[in-house]
Amino acid sequence: MVVRKLLFERPILIGGLGLAATLSLLGGLQDVFADGTTVAGLVATGAGVWWWRRQRPETATVEIKPTTPVEREQVAAAIATLKADLDALQQELSALEAEELVAATMARFEQQRQELLTELDRAALKVAIAGYPRSGKSLLQTFLTALPSASPEATDAGLTVAEIALTAATAHPQVMADLLQQQDAVIYLVTEDLTDSVFADLKTLTAAGQRVLLCLNKRDHYLPDEQTAILDKMQAQLRSLPQTIACVAITTAPRPIKVRTHDAAGQVTEHLETPDPEVAPITTPVQQWCEQEVPHLVAQTVMRQVHQFRRDIQTTLNQARHRQALPLVEQLQWAAAGTAFASPVPSLDLLAAIAINGQLVMDLSKAYQQPLALDQAKTIAAELATVVVKLGVVEVSTQLLTAALKSHAATFVVGGGVQAFSAAYLTRLCGESLMAYFEERALSGQAETAISVDAIGQKLQALMPSTQRAEFLQTLINQGRQKLSPKTAPALAPGETAALNLSQPTPQILSTQMETISSGELV
User: Fold this and answer.
1) Does this model's pTM top 0.90?
2) CATH code, 123-278
């Protein structure tokens, strides 16, 4: 059986499932209380409390800090250290992937690393003009490309200007990523007060150390007092950003104004006259960037690219580790299902489920190179059980699977069927949540911080909708038929039905028992 194969070299499973099995034998000698909880269940609860209870670990918080200025020498040193990162990547991938795939991946990464060295020597400044439709991007681009230092193409020197259109349909995270990784500076155009979306963009850019210049265009659309009020309000909002950015006002396409003239004879004539554009507040700092700050701004850009390169390396590692970890989750989910299917005592199923989840925590932490001690894994598993109860996952899974089994299950799924599939469902959900959490920790460089069960719970909550779809549930049931049935049976058609033993514990009883075990309260 699946459970038997998993016992060796897995201490939590040996202890937890052994305790559950012993107490299940005692369960046959006890009377059943009115609420369906057996004396053996109460003993299991007390034993579970003694074994699992432990002080909660501190929750780590991550604070976003602005990027400090860097110079060319620092960036060159950072690019050099990427070689060690790539060597570590190759070593780990070689144990997880095919040789040809590893070679192709490493060749691609090495080429990107060499491109960073070339980029660091770039002498042409890249400036992006970002803004929503009708904010004046195209006209401002015309003025900037006319500057003496401007160049229409990326040559050995000068200025290249890109126009970045922002719309409600634009995928802002991708646009912001492009502005951060490819541009040395960003001119952000607005024509009114700062909206929430604009302020969020500015916060993202400044938090990453991007050079930003905020520009109020079409200033001639406002009266002098209104211009002053808008600019003052903007300046007050900008003071809360991670880095200070300048705010200026320009007019790229002035409105025609009525001009009245008086000749010598006293005749008055009127005509419309278009004033000259007022773009000096933009062209002056851009000219200064080109003359004095190109090496510094280029170094800032390449350093951001180095950080992104490291994230790409970690993402590749996460993907390989995910493929390695998924079979571990599948093994343990069916171990949980098999235990629940065979056990006559619901509270013991839950004790065994916590033991299996403890082993799951240990196995996944090793797979993601973030190993945990035995006591840590026990603590996290018990606390994760509490989170599952608080989120109502027990009730949801039982209700969903009861409905699904009525439509799709064969006659062998009786007695412990709903419990077995619920155990598999919960173990799979916890496993995928843990994998997502370990991957995020590695990606953010927080792998050495304390485990946050609340953060795992957030991942679990985010994954729940995808695991409640009919396709996922039917796949789970068909796989369970192969794992739990004494004989292999063919996949079922959606219209097949079966009689279920509906004397299973209600979702409320399951939830109460799990909460009792995980919270450390004796009945």
Assistant:
1) no
2) 3.40.50.300
